[in-house]
Design brief:
13 helices; globular; 24% strand; alpha+beta
Length: 412
């Protein structure tokens, strides 16, 4: 029974939102980032990259303090405002491909994360958890919502439909041709009904943002110890999330690129593959798998289809049946010698929106020796992994939508 609450968001004025909203910091190339910082004084990038003001790269705790300073300056200058009443925020995105995402931005309980009412399917890295927790503790706000998903619900859909009849508080299109809409919902009856509908669900699932969840939980534990008057109702007991129905999720695969064949020739490598796979060479013709447990491979100017020899592979749980796990346990680890798929620098990933043409170009360039193509993981597979308490191999899913930073901000 997840606890989903409205909150008083700090957000841009209507006339500035299109200038402030930015993608995640790491998603920009350095050239893109510098151009936006140079040409747009209102970009949220100025807050998360405060060193630009001084023409200097600043990192660590010094950066965190400057982030907070820059954020306060945006508030002092009236660029950000804060809602007077707690709201849910209905958020709609129409991306350049015509995909539509509709959901609710809310405050979500860290206790529910701890108690597995918010289910996870990916491992987190302790260093990143601690780093982001320290960042949050210093800056005092969260500007990137965790993406959560819930089973399609006709009553929540009806509420969203009714809210969207009125004029949106925000409507703006980005330079990437995605259009964003936001409605503030503070009507008491509607707020209570949304909270009731989510509380009636047995659980919800993390789609994207595992480190943000775990860092928020660690932050709450720290602040709870420091607060002798802790009640459990403090803002630090919650984190900002964007909740969308399962049918709205768009999941892409992550394809794999490997720099070498672990000392083998092409022929030796193919012979090793033959133990676990039926192999068919397809020449220069692009090939993408059409069924689960099939893979495409690009090697030395040719595409290959790889069909798993199922009599040689035992599936005993949801993780065993996952294509990213099959690829790792039958090829990457035993044949190519990649033990640690998270940190091995011989292995790289490219999401499925780049398709196999990109994989081909990277292998043809000589930077990589071989590339593998997969099918996207489904929502049901993701949920089965979480329900059984397993975690997926790294880079198993590339999930949309991707929210813009700075549109709604949650203060602790």
């Amino acid at each position: 029974m997840p606890k989903i609450l409205p909150f008083k968001a700090v957000r841009p004025t209507r006339d500035k939102v299109c200038l402030i909203a930015s993608r995640a910091y790491d998603s920009y190339t350095r050239e893109e980032r510098d151009a936006r910082l140079r040409d747009n004084p209102f970009s949220f990038l100025h807050i998360v990259n405060p060193g630009f003001k001084y023409h200097k790269v600043i990192s660590g705790k010094e950066r965190y303090k400057l982030v907070r300073n820059r954020y306060q300056e945006f508030k002092e200058d009236g660029i950000f405002i804060q809602d007077q009443n707690p709201c849910y925020y209905v958020y709609k995105i129409v991306n350049r491909d015509g995909l539509v995402f509709r959901g609710i931005v809310a405050a979500t309980s860290v206790e529910d994360y701890k108690n597995d009412l918010i289910k996870k399917h990916e491992d987190t890295i302790e260093f990143r958890e601690t780093m982001f927790k320290d960042y949050l503790k210093t800056v005092g706000f969260n500007a990137e919502a965790v993406l959560l998903t819930y089973p399609d619900n006709s009553e929540i859909k009806q509420i969203i439909d009714e809210v969207m009849v009125s004029r949106a508080e925000y409507e703006f299109t980005t330079t990437y041709k995605d259009t964003h809409y936001l409605w503030c919902v503070d009507d008491t009856k509607v707020v209570e009904e949304i909270a009731r509908l989510f509380q009636a669900m047995p659980e919800i699932y993390i789609a994207d943002g595992h480190h943000r969840c775990s860092s928020s939980y660690l932050l709450a534990e720290d602040l709870k110890k420091e607060n002798k008057s802790h009640t459990g109702k403090e803002p630090y007991n919650y984190f900002m999330s964007y909740l969308i129905p399962e049918s709205d999720l768009k999941i892409y695969e992550f394809n794999r690129l490997i720099t070498d064949l672990n000392g083998m020739s092409n022929e030796e490598f193919l012979i090793h593959l033959d133990t676990m796979y039926r192999i068919e060479e397809r020449g220069a013709e692009y090939y993408k798998p059409s069924k689960k447990h099939h893979f495409s491979m690009y090697l030395d100017g040719s595409f290959y289809s790889l069909y798993l020899r199922k009599h040689n592979y035992e599936i005993s749980n949801a993780l065993d049946a996952l294509d990213t796990q099959i690829l790792h346990s039958t090829i990457l680890k035993p044949i190519l010698g990649i033990e640690d798929a998270r940190n091995d620098k011989r292995l790289n990933y490219t999401h499925g929106k780049m398709d196999m043409a990109f994989v081909k170009s990277m292998v043809d360039s000589g930077e990589y020796k071989v590339g593998f193509g997969l099918l996207p993981i489904t929502v049901s597979e993701m949920k089965n992994i979480a329900d059984e308490g397993h975690t997926m191999p790294p880079k198993s899913t590339y999930i949309e939508p991707k929210l813009r930073s700075g549109v709604t901000i949650y203060e602790f």
